[in-house]
Amino acid sequence: MAMLYGMLHVMQNDAFARSALESELQQAVAHQQFELHYQPQLDSQGRVTAAEALVRWQHPERGLVLPGKFIELAEQTGLILPLGQWVMEQACGQLQAWATQPGYAHLRLAVNISQLQFRQKDFVAQVLGLIEQHGIQAGLLELEITESMLVEDLSDIIEKMGALRRSGVTFSLDDFGTGYSSLNHLKRLPLNQIKIDQSFVRDVLTDANDASIARTVVALGHNLGLTVIAEGVETAEQHAFLAACGCEFFQGFLFSPALPIAAFERYVQDSTPRGATRCAGATPWAA
Prior knowledge:
Low-confidence stretches: 7-13, 273-287
Mean pLDDT: 88
Strand content: 15-25%
Order of helices and strands: HEEEHHEHHEHEHEHHEHEHH
Structural class: alpha/beta
Distance between the termini: 42 Å
Strand order of the largest sheet: 1-2-4-5-6-7-8-9
Number of strands: 9
Largest sheet: 8 strands, mixed, barrel
Shape: globular
Radius of gyration: 20 Å
């Protein structure tokens, strides 16, 4: 009986903590207590060609909160919709600012899109409206979708992707190989890029299966006319292996964690083909 009471007490505490976090998250959305950090994406020559925009919650008491602590709750409560809209607005505004600066005007910016966002009937109109409002090149905006989104409404997803692709927006499939998509899904999606998930990159040097998966993803991507990027690259040895497989783009702590905008722009300025070696001792931060 004591064990049962203990379990009930834990469940009550968890429910209270969740309720409190939900209330705080509602306030955060209302008062825009968020900021974007930018993780560089580099080509095989060590040049920064793009960045992934990653949201951070600047909590008034807890400080900087990483998305792993609140994104799932935001999705479950529907708060991901106003939060996702804010992220898109900020990303388009940043592309607009970079367009006037020669050192950054070439950069693409990747934005993660949730399933709830994509399901909105006016999602395409929202994105195109922001592109027009900010006067940015659509080809510099990359939307990242995950395999888990493909479980339902695949035809609707393909239709919306196609409409945005025709306007120049590009798409990347994140977490490839960890979700539910089939090769039939993959060939139907109007993608530009696929990502080798960090769960495969982590043990690519010690696990023969992960090494085979990485080689297969690169070959599959190229055969489908897609570029391939590896995320979660943490060591020079992982980078060398993936480059030898033909992977063209890389992202991870070997190069840089996600950075506030000023630090990211300094990184771009300082980046050279030797950047990967120079940053090899970078401390891993949460994505």
